[in-house]
Amino acid sequence: MDNRNRPIGFFDSGVGGLSVLKYALQELPNEDFLFYGDCANVPYGEKTAEEVRDLTISCCDLLYKKGAKALLIACNTATSAAIYAMREKYQMPVISMEPAIKPAILSEKPGKVLVMATPGTLSSQRYARLVQKVGHEQRLISVPCGGLADLLEQGEFNSEEIKSYIRKKVEPYRGQEISGIVIGCTHYSFISDQIQKIAKELLYGACDIYDGMYGTVRHLKNLLFEYNLDKRTPGGNVELFASGEPRHLEIMKKILKYN
Ligand code: DGL
Fold first, then answer.
1. 139-194 residue pLDDT tens
2. In this structure, how many other beta carbons lie within 10 angstroms of the beta carbon of residue 28?
């Protein structure tokens, strides 16, 4: 098969990466996608880096065996733990995600930046290096959101439980001037509007949202062109895979339709 016509593999610990896939479907309408959610093992954000790396590699092996021409790790936590190993292992473009702190820091607006991500991402060496590279560490406030990915995994994004979770996380910064909020986990992209709404109620400042998925999908698009891997025939297809119980696949299908 012409390499251009092979699918792009997307991976996440669970349903979060579907937020990235939905945007990729708009940007790359001709491409075929394979999406694997490791729903049996989610959340990754509270596991050790070694556990996350091993799980990520075994799931991505499956996408590789299914003929993926490129891999997008639609998970900040898996990126922090496994990206070097993945790039060594696979002879294909491997695109990663990281919290979008750079654009948040570069914004001219006054105030601090809240970085909402999993405990695993925020405590990783990779994140520490990113902070060092971007600079202005004193403007960044880490907000580890343990347990939030688990709540979102059910595919219900508007529940009272989720609203009160966000409120509890934002409350400690009540009255502070916040220029931006970094959505550092792909699960949270589904609730970025709610996060911003609650933040604007409790905080002061622009509370602009910064989500790494847009830059990541643009990067994927550029790499496909660069490696002559962009599909040129019309039409596109998505195949979903989930580890664990069959209900996970049903939730994923529902989310893919959700706007
Ligand atoms: N969606 C993942 C991320 O972007 C992690 C969620 C989890 O498994 O804890 O970090």
1. 999 999 999 999 999 999 999 999 999 999 999 999 999 999 999 999 999 999 99
2. 18
User: Would you identify the CATH topology of the domain 101-211?
Assistant: Rossmann fold (3.40.50)
Q: Is 111 in the pocket of ligand 1 (CB under 6 A)?
A: no
Domain 3-97+213-256 and domain 101-211 have a common topology: yes
- CB of 216 closer than 6 A to ligand 1? no
pLDDT digits (tens, 9 = 90+) for 210-239: 999 999 999 999 999 999 999 999 988 999
CA dist 84 and 88 (Å) reads 6
Q: Is 39 tagged catalytic?
A: no
Q: In angstroms, what is the span from residue 14 Cα to ligand 1's centroid?
A: 7
For the full predicted model, state whether its pTM sits above 0.70.
Answer: yes
Q: To the nearest 10°, report the CA torsion of 188, 144, 196, 81.
A: -40
CA distance 161 to 235: 39
Extract the tokens encoding 206.
């622009």
